[in-house]
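Handout for the seminar on molecular recognition.
Each group receives one record of this type.
Step one: identify the two inputs.
Step two: read the structure output and locate the region that could contact flavin-adenine dinucleotide.
Step three: write two sentences on what you found, then compare them with the reference statements printed after the record.
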Amino acid sequence: MGSQLPLILRILYSSVPFLILVFIWCNEIYEVFRVAVFVLPFYQDSYDFIVVGGGSAGAAVASRLSENKLFSVLLIEAGPKAPYISDVPLIVATLTDTPLDWSYRTEPQKECCNGLENNVSHWTSGRVLGGGSVLNYMLYVRGNKLDYDNWEKLGNKGWSYDNILAFFKKAENQRGRYMSDDAFHGTDGPLSVEDRRHSSSLAKAFIEAGKELGYEEVDVNGGNQTGFTTPQVTMKDGQRFSSARAYLYDGKTRSNLFVLPKAFATKIITVKSNGKIKATGVEFNVFGMTRHIQARKEVIVSCGTVGSAKLLMLSGIGPKKHLQDLKIDIVKDLQVGHNLQDHIGNGITLLHKDNAVAPPHPLNFMAHLDFLFNGKGPYTSNNVEGMSFTASKYSENPNWPDIQIHFFGLSLTADYGIVIKPSIGISDEVSCLL
Ligand SMILES: Cc1cc2nc3c(=O)[nH]c(=O)nc-3n(C[C@H](O)[C@H](O)[C@H](O)COP(=O)(O)OP(=O)(O)OC[C@H]3O[C@@H](n4cnc5c(N)ncnc54)[C@H](O)[C@@H]3O)c2cc1C
């Protein structure tokens, strides 16, 4: 599709991801300066709590711990504070494979990923304060009630949905259509949740199609998840609202919460006493220097799916055989990293000649101004116009869906193969069929 585009337009569209990359690199350089001059000289030798990894979870945990003024809390994050450009929802896919992404790749797969280059899956993962919430598609989906109830049944006390619901409500600042549903939504929390602000006519058609199939339009975060909806998103005034914005900045700074970006944790320091293992501190690397810091109470590891397992293993906590192979001293033989499951995503592209949606032209200044001054227009779009949860015949319960559909208004090549194709790693062979 890219070759059908006149050269001048191709250059124009291609310059957008390049300019975004320049912004991100400038932010990296500024962050090095800021951390070296204004942050690093002021950290202490010990804190009550050390939270390692300032992503979606870590930012919230560090902030909540520091609500108690008697505790001192250190948050260590490998990435920088996010640049403002990452708050523009439409550019989500351009953030992949930039310095804000760990850019993990799987090994070439034998039985799947056939539409991807070399059968390799791209595992985008935030390397930035706010973690995945800076790079993700902003869909606000809590998960299914029955999953939580099942986790409690499996022995995880306190994880039933009825228990967890109070915390979802406490976290949420619902500003959209479910604002007055106080049985399921909160309006006083730090995390801003809105309805999408820009949709094509296809969003409505998607809901209507669901109704034709006998599904209702539902609040997927309400009493019943099965059905069709237009998504709720973690945005504020049409801009991305990451967990870092919700919990760490935008007026959330506290003197007992110290945030250290650009610091990469390399080891959890542990001691053994009376047969028990206790985490007493963290070793980390900042600007090529190794530093140690003590935790008076606890170390919380929130480095994400891959990062947490890796840090634990580097600290000697992991499968014995694997640690022995890597010559890491064993602190505890544990099945860290086992049962890792990826979710399978399947794409189907349909073209509708009367309702084709394309990204805004880079020189459409009205769209820029609409975003900047009104928080509206195509730049507020995360591209996911509709969503549904349905139960296949394999599901145990119709209220426990096992299929989630994300309905994109754009095809995977609507951006002329410039951004989405390389970000997912779609092969040339498949791309020209889309
Ligand atoms: C492209 C994409 C789209 C997504 N879309 C959605 C969506 O629309 N809705 C949704 O609900 N979910 C979505 N997700 C998933 C969601 O973003 C993640 O589940 C969530 O961010 C995970 O949170 P976390 O705190 O566990 O990990 P992360 O947010 O990944 O945070 C881990 C943090 O730890 C840091 N870290 C790692 N190792 C170290 C170390 N050694 N030292 C210091 N810091 C370290 C990382 O830099 C990172 O900031 C998406 C994910 C991706 C990648």
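Reference statements: The mean pLDDT is 93. The CA atoms of residues 35 and 261 lie 7 Å apart.
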